[in-house]
């Protein structure tokens, strides 16, 4: 298969990934994501999360994102947490 054909096929099958890239970045790099660029419904949670030295310490000490989000309080940062797949 020609490289451009393969790229077009890949791009057409994964258009949702590009559409949701901002959400993926917020979840995967919450301490580096500029809160000014965050959607308004997430902005305050993101500011609180980024202001927490305790959460930053947890984030840097956890080996996976799943471990980090598990360690966050169940009621805290609901909008910044990844949505579990069913």
Jot down its keywords:
86 residues, mainly alpha, Reverse transcriptase domain-containing protein
Can you walk me through this structure?
The protein is built from six helices and no strands. The protein has one domain (3-71). The chain has helices at residues 3-13, 15-19, 21-28, 40-51, 53-61, 65-71. The longest helix is centred in the middle third of the chain and has 12 residues, at 40-51. The chain is 60% helix and 0% strand. It comes from Schistocephalus solidus. This is Reverse transcriptase domain-containing protein.
Write a compact overview of the structure shown:
The protein is mainly α. It has six helices and no strands.
Q: Structural class from helices and strands?
A: mainly alpha
Largest sheet: none
Number of helices: 6
Shape: elongated
**Averaged pLDDT:** 82
Percent of residues in helical segments? 55-70%
Runs in which pLDDT lies below 50 for 5 or more consecutive residues are none
Q: How many structurally independent domains?
A: 1
């Amino acid at each position: 298969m020609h490289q451009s054909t393969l790229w077009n096929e890949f791009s057409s099958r994964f258009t949702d990934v590009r559409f949701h890239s901002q959400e993926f970045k917020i979840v995967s790099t919450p301490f580096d994501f500029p809160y000014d660029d965050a959607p308004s419904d997430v902005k305050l949670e993101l500011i609180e999360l980024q202001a927490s030295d305790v959460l930053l310490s947890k984030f840097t000490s956890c080996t996976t994102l799943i471990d980090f989000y598990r360690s966050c309080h169940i009621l805290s940062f609901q909008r910044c947490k990844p949505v579990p797949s069913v």
